[in-house]
Structures are given as C-alpha cells and as structure tokens.
Design a protein that fits this description.
single chain, 116 residues, mainly alpha, Arc Repressor Mutant, subunit A, 2 domains, two-stranded antiparallel ribbon, elongated
C-alpha cells in the first residue's frame, strides 16, 4: 500500500482535509458523517463522495457503519467485517429492485452480469 504522503500528493485539498480526520482513526473512535460536515463545512453528500473516492481511487482503508461512522481499517478482520456488511446491504438493495420489477432476484443478478 502507498505511504500516506504519496497518497496525499495526488489529492485535492478537500480529500486531504477528510483524510486528515480519518487516517489511523480506530473503529472505537469512528467519526460520523455529520461530525465531518461540522468540522469541514462541506455538505453531507460531498463528504460521502470524498470518502468514496478515498476508498476507490486512492485505496485508503476506510471502514464505515451507519451507527459508528468512518474509521481507518487496521486488520483483515475489519476488512472482512466491512465486506460482509456491504455485500449484505447490496443484496437487500437488489431485492428491493427485483420486487419493484416483480422479477426474481436471480434475474437481477443475471442482468448485472450482462451490464457489468
């Protein structure tokens, strides 16, 4: 994984600002989206977008939960915990999509294979 200094050099000031609150923050001291909004003056949507970009583009190990907030993933167990939670959430969203179209969940999965 890239060193934090190398990651920061490729980011905007907003990315750096959010990363400053999150890097090395343990799960026991996670920070909620609303707290990041209050600390940065950014909107909730912007904070979520930046966190998403930090994870997807900059490969920062940021975990999250709706109750605890954002935190820096420190070990494989936390990676697995986040993976399981995100996967379960994704399936529930797809179940709702299938219900709206009145189709089986398996059809939604098949469509995903075609689309992606």
């Amino acid at each position: 994984m890239e060193e934090i200094g190398q990651i920061i050099n490729k980011m905007t000031k907003q990315h750096e600002q959010i990363l400053g609150f999150l890097k090395y923050r343990p799960k026991s001291n996670a920070i909620l989206n609303k707290a990041l909004v209050n600390c940065t003056g950014l909107t909730e949507r912007t904070v979520r977008r930046i966190v998403r970009e930090l994870i997807l583009i900059h490969h920062c190990p940021i975990g999250s939960s709706t109750q605890e907030g954002y935190y820096w993933i420190k070990d494989p167990a936390e990676i697995q915990e986040n993976y399981n939670r995100l996967r379960k959430r994704a399936v529930k969203i797809l179940e709702r999509a299938a219900a709206m179209k009145k189709i089986a969940l398996s059809e939604v999965f098949d469509q995903l294979k075609i689309d992606y």
